[in-house]
Amino acid sequence: MADYDEETLADLLRTLPTPPEAWVKAAQEIPLARRGLDDIVERARADQAFRAALIADLEQAIASAGYEPDPVLADAVRQRLSID
Amino acid sequence: MQVVETDAQLVARCRAGDDDAWRELVERFSRYVYAIAVQAFRLSDADAEDVFQEVFARAYENLHKLRDDNAIRPWLAQLTRRLCLDTLRSGLREQPGETPEPSVADDTIARLDEALAVHEALSTLPDNCREILDRFFARDESYRHIGEALDLPPGTIASRISRCLVKLRTELEGRNPASAQSGG
Fold this sequence. Notes:
The complex is a heterodimer.
Chain A: H1 6-15, H2 21-28, H3 30-46, H4 48-56, H5 58-64, H6 71-81
Chain B: H1 7-15, H2 19-40, H3 45-62, H4 72-94, H5 102-122, H6 127-138, H7 143-150, H8 154-175, H9 177-181
Helix pairs in contact in B: 1-2, 2-3, 2-4, 2-5, 3-4, 6-8, 7-8
């Protein structure tokens, strides 16, 4: 940057808009979701009934296991267990 | 002035499993990643959201592969760029149309790098300056709204913004003396 005049600064401050709050929150919760993911996958591998419940209704089974069934976690469980 | 953790320090804490550090990292780079998706590659809101979440999910998974902790910003930029291009290519297969020229997107990313540097300098200013500049410029709030939120008379807001811009400029010139000598 050659000059930091007031107009340039104002322009650069406007250049980075704030993303929707929900997007940021979801990204910030990735570590929590990942820990839930590991627990759910491990349990599904050890417990056939739980695995069947996941296949029948993924979101409901995640919620009944005590986790928030957000789409990021649900997609990750689906992929890890190859549930279509 | 506030002491702000360097990118490398923040990355090191994330890698050590510190959830607060991860939240701070997302906060620090969320605008940058979002801006690349919507400004450089002009993705729709739905596509931008997918890319946004995927960037941070992959960053979380692959943080241990980052060779230089100070390089987190270019690493995220590259990851975002690649995912945006994948999204655009996939959309083109379904519905042919125009995509931004890669060189144009790169020019925009260079400008976003500059904007991020300004935001980083902003984060070191005292709370009152940081908040008023962010509300007015980045959040596009009116004098009236800012006055109500910060309990300030609307007539004082313009002068306060101006004073805070001077502080921001001083902070930036302290980081980059060459620009101060150029007369800026």
